[in-house]
Design goal:
five-stranded parallel β-sheet; disordered N terminus; alpha+beta; Elongation Factor Tu (Ef-tu), domain 3
Length: 427
């Protein structure tokens, strides 16, 4: 006769998904206790016993509220226990219905604590892309891919400061296939030679399109490029590669390398909170994230990834006409008001609390309580992209905001970085 085993009164809840072959701690402990209570007999006999399992808080609707008794064969017992635990149910009691055709030895009973167990049934979620699976350096400087420009248009409105263009390249037909994922960069090698007569070196640009490209056909890549311009000894100097790209004509062949980068990868979790801090062309990877999250065609293209978390973009620009992709962002905000927040800092048009120019770090300070409340959630990721000069201001704002909550940002930031929740790409 096999005695009844009473489960612990707390729910066997799972945290992060266990790796295949691993049993969550609570489940292992319970299985170990169960083994000691139900195992008797000879190791040579098969186990065809049936078990009664009393469950509560499992299922949907009335089923979830009621206590339920299920009868399962021994071979399905542990899988059922894992499924109940995964869905937040409680196992109140497990007992054998009878001796069956034979009674197994301990080695044939419910696996002990160290024995491997089947992975729990997967829930619907986007498949995680491990860093090992991310495409890197498919094309190198000595043997670049020749892409073809398909479009090149201005992203800024009348009265904007400087030139910023959206440029798309056809990347079909490569061997190997040139592909990428959101958050990566590609290299561009401009035509011509430098002052020493040597070929120009590549410049890296953050990719502004999703893995499917703007045309959703998996054969294009897009960049957001600002023409570099500065004064030196009374002379206006223009960036070599940025000018080359802003002036380039459709049909032109361009040398492309990469892709590169694993720092800015978007979490696959559909329920994640994604806080984005961008200035200028730092919007490029954010545009890719937001298209993947909210663009109707992208959502139709990716049934395995239907974002339902919170995305919050802080966008810095000198003037309103310099807000890049502004119409698209406002459309996402209108269609997904519960999932997307869009906060701008327009330095030459808005003032901060001290009466000075409004920068992105000022917006961070304004919303410090909300931001840090979100950061406390392990599903929250923060992304920062733009000019390197934005980092000290953001760091100062986060330090002040953390201090107001009794936290030390100098300690918290490395912890977030180690947990792969703090992502920075500046230039």
């Amino acid at each position: 006769m096999v005695p009844t085993v009473t489960a612990p009164p707390w729910p066997l809840r799972m945290g992060p998904q266990p790796r295949a072959g691993k049993v969550p701690y609570d489940q292992r402990a319970f299985c170990g206790r169960l083994q000691m209570r139900v195992s008797t007999g000879s190791a040579t006999q098969s186990d065809d016993r049936m078990f009664s399992v009393v469950i509560e808080s499992f299922g949907v609707g009335r089923q979830r509220r009621a206590e339920r008794r299920l009868s399962v064969p021994f071979e399905r017992l542990q899988t059922l226990m894992q499924t109940v635990a995964q869905q937040g149910g409680r196992i109140r009691m497990v007992s054998a219905d009878g001796d069956g055709a034979g009674t197994p030895a301990a080695s044939d009973a419910v696996p002990a604590a160290d024995a491997p167990a089947p992975a729990p049934a997967p829930t619907k979620q986007a498949a995680a892309v491990s860093h090992a699976d991310v495409p890197v350096n498919l094309y190198k400087p000595k043997a670049p891919f020749l892409g073809t420009v398909t479009e090149n248009y201005s992203l800024v409105g009348e009265g904007a400061i400087g030139r910023v263009n959206h440029i798309t390249f056809d990347i079909a037909g490569g061997d190997p296939d040139l592909h990428y994922i959101e958050g990566q960069s590609i290299g561009i090698i401009p035509e011509g030679t430098d002052a020493n007569g040597k070929p120009h070196k590549l410049r890296l640009y953050s990719i502004a399109s999703t893995r499917h490209g703007d045309n959703l056909e998996d054969n294009t890549v897009s960049l957001c490029v600002r023409q570099l311009q500065y004064e030196k000894d009374g002379e206006t100097i223009y960036g070599v590669c940025s000018t080359y790209l802003c002036d380039i004509e459709p049909g032109t062949k361009v040398k492309i390398t990469g892709p590169v980068g694993k720092e800015m990868l978007l979490p696959p979790d559909e329920d994640a909170t994604v806080i984005m801090l961008a200035t200028g062309t730092g919007i490029a990877p954010m545009r890719a994230y937001l298209r993947r999250m909210f663009d109707p065609s992208e959502r139709a293209r990716n049934p395995e990834y239907q974002f339902r978390g919170l995305a919050w973009l802080f966008m810095g620009a000198p003037k309103t006409p310099n807000l890049l992709y502004d119409e698209d962002l406002k459309s996402y905000q209108a269609e997904f008001p519960d999932n997307f927040r869009y906060t701008t800092a327009i330095s030459r048009e808005q003032q901060n609390a001290k009466g000075g120019r409004m920068y992105i770090q000022d917006r961070v300070l304004e919303h410090a309580d909300e931001i840090f409340a979100l950061i406390e959630n392990p599903k929250t990721h923060v992304y920062m992209c733009g000019l390197r000069g934005m980092e000290p201001g953001i760091d100062e704002a986060m330090t002040a905001a953390a201090a107001a909550k009794g936290l030390d940002w100098a300690e918290l930031r490395p912890q977030l970085k180690k947990a792969e929740r703090w992502h920075v790409e500046t230039y």
